[in-house]
Amino acid sequence: MKRELERIFGALGDPAAHAADLTENAPRTPAYVVRATEEEQIPALLKLATEHGVPVTPKATGQNVAGLAIPEEGGIILDLSPLDAVEIDAQNMVAWIGPGVSWERLKAECAQHDLAIGFPLAPPDASVMACALMDGLSTMALAHGSYADWVHGVVAYLADGTRVVTGSAAVSGRPLSRGPLPDLTGLFISWFGTTGVVVRMGLALWPLRAHRRREIILCHDTASGFRLMRAGARAGGFDDLGGLGWPAAKWALGAEELGPRDPAEPELYILADYGADTKRELALQRDKLRALAQAESLPAPMLVQDLVQLAPALEPFAELPARLGFLLDHPGGGLTWVGTYGPMERLEEGARIGARLLEEAGHPPLLVTRPMKGGHYAVLRFIERFNRSDPAEVERIRELNVALGRALLDLDYVPYKCPDTLLDEVLQRMDPGFRDLMQRVKNAVDPKGILSPSRWRLGSPLSENVVL
Question: Residue 415 in 3-state DSSP?
């Protein structure tokens, strides 16, 4: 098989460099690493892999923190990062992008057309498409929902090499909307590469407002911050009201070993993003935010840029995308999280339980939260740094994340970018008909189970992979 792969791709990559990521998920070493420089190479690979029954794991930059780009043992890593074409349809505010397009690149391309995108807490060189396919979130999530809501269609290859176009582009060639055709775009979102290899995506863009503000509100307790976020979601007009737990600022300022929080310091920081086309509109939105803070007896919001002048180390929070070094550059190098979407009314309870579990395990309770899609649901995410070189600590992190995931599932919070550590728990709670439908879809588009088979445990009939 090596000779056939070299014929299609030329030189092969180093398998050891793709065996692991920053998380507690167990490493697995692929047999081969191939790098796609042309779209035509992908169907050739998939036909070959199907013929030989060798699993394929597609990968862009591998910077997610859920273990989702860890390959199958003895399989093939398909590196899609060279496919980085960008086309901007400025009139219809949509981008047609490849998997190698980064946040930094798309931001620059959009700015040339007075268009904007929202950003996740991800490095500037991370893949836009990978985040959208995994249903991530952004600094425009309150206004526009998760990235799955932004996807207008895809071009993908099935396991047998069949090319599929979804959304309006299936007829017109233009990714203007998911409909009015049957919505098959969802066959590739949150499937983690198990249904096909996506090589193009239509992604919604938004107007770049003439005036923009990013302000921060210091909350003395999470409950007051959550009430402000709920009220702000209903009030409307904000792109984002994202909450960050107190350890983020401590780490950003250089503290390493964090003890209990000083009661005099804020427990939650809310970052408010909004914009307007006129200064008058901007002032009205600014006054609305101040009224929301005043109703909770919170300090008046301040511009993040003003805070950065007082504490330059907080510069990464001023404008995204940014590399958050305090999460990536620390002794031990491990980074992981449990991220979930669920009901707004259970934010307080989820935050309280999550903080308790983290603190009992000896970790600062770094919380990320925000209302999504106008406040229809919320995010609860807990981030942990750890020592990847210590097997005992890796196991403790794994146990902690399972406990976190179970506790949040009990509150109707469902993991997004679901990692291996929580997959069995999610499958056990899943509607049996839904599980069966997933397996039928998998069998239809990938009958030999070569595409990322350990994701969603769909490599062979579900009952053989997990006890339900």
Answer: strand
Instruction: Give residue 459's pLDDT.
Output: 63
Beta bridge partners of 288: none
| Beta strands at 56-59 and 76-79: parallel, antiparallel or unpaired | parallel
Q: Where are the domains of the chain?
A: 86-207, 211-420
Predicted local distance difference test score (pLDDT) of residue 41:
97
Residue spans of alpha helices (H) in 201-258: 222-235, 247-252
Q: Average pLDDT for consecutive 10-residue bins of the chain (468 residues)? A: 94 92 92 97 97 95 84 95 97 98 96 95 93 95 96 98 98 96 97 97 97 96 96 96 95 87 93 97 97 97 94 88 87 93 97 97 96 97 94 96 97 94 93 95 95 83 35
Distance CA 30, CA 48 (A): 16
Copy the structure tokens of residue 236.
Answer: 């409307």
Amino acid at 430: M
Cβ count within 10 A of residue 461: 12
Annotation: CATH topology of 211-420: Vanillyl-alcohol Oxidase; Chain A, domain 3 (3.40.462)
The alpha helices in 277-346, defined as continuous H runs, are: 279-295, 304-310, 325-328
Task: Give the pLDDT of residue 257.
Answer: 82
Tokens describing residue 285: 């939105």
Cis upstream peptide for 343 (omega within 30°)? no
The verdict on domain 86-207 having CATH code 3.30.465.10 is yes
CA distance 86 to 54: 31
Distance of CA 237 to the CA centre of its chain: 24
Q: Which region holds residue 199: left if phi is over 0, alpha if psi is between -120 and 50, else beta? A: alpha
Q: Environment class of residue 208 by beta-carbon count within 10 Å: exposed (0-12), middle (13-18) or buried (19+)?
A: middle
Question: Which residue, 405, 411, 438, is CA-closest to 24?
Answer: 405
DSSP codes of every residue in 124-150: TTSBHHHHHHTT---TTHHHH-SGGGG
